[in-house]
Amino acid sequence: MKKILFTLATALFSFVALQAQELEKSLLWEISGNGLTESSYLYGTIHMTCDASLDEDVLKALDDTKLLVLEIDMDDPSMQMTMMKGMYMKEGKTIKDLVTEEEYITISKFVKEQMGMPLDAMGNIKPFFITAMFYPKLLGCPVQSYEEALMKVAHSQEEEVLGLETIEEQLNVFDEIPYEDQATDLLRSAKDNLAYDKESFQKLMELYNNEDIEGMITMMDEDKNLSTTKHKDKMLDNRNKNWITKIGDHAKQQPTFFGVGAAHLAGDNGVIKLLRKAGYTVKYVN
Question: Where are the domains of the chain?
């Protein structure tokens, strides 16, 4: 269960969307100006990968900073318990309330084949979290996490790890997105036994490996099959806006390394452009 919860924590925002902007191909960006005495860095991660090795530029940026800030504080010992409490739908709803009897049978068969568990045993879990349990199967390899890799370096440097938001705030997003829309995603995955998801994820990984954050955003924004695209204001835009002041506060106190999902970087409401609007200089590290 602990491994599943950690996978869910790192997979929460693997499939999200954002409007495209003309930005250089880079995952690492330097933040300066606007009163900062030392540079901080912004790094776009992907939450599941086959190889989470950090390149020299990233390692140097980690050396040059004194604090690691991720989307959430994954060092928080209460994270596991908080996630367990936040996985369930409110008002006693279950999957059966969201789909037809025939659709429920389709999802139930899929869950049994993929997880070896009866759907009835997890019927009141938010549909997104059931879908997220299958994300590791999209890779075809043991899952590695950039967040874990970043934390390992921070720990070796005896630096603190913090979050831009709480796990409760992340989990609440999946109460704001209608459960019915989440169930639609789950049903689509069940109908073709993850075929569409695997194809889409492989395309996304290619773009990420090429550091093409524009291409990633365009691809995800065009994927109308995902409820996360339909509700990108809740998944990305609102959260990005809430992060800007926090990023500035951390960066003004000490040089900080920020690691967030790459889908948060680009777009009119992406972190890069919002930081620039706030007066910071944000330039890519090539």
Answer: 2-284
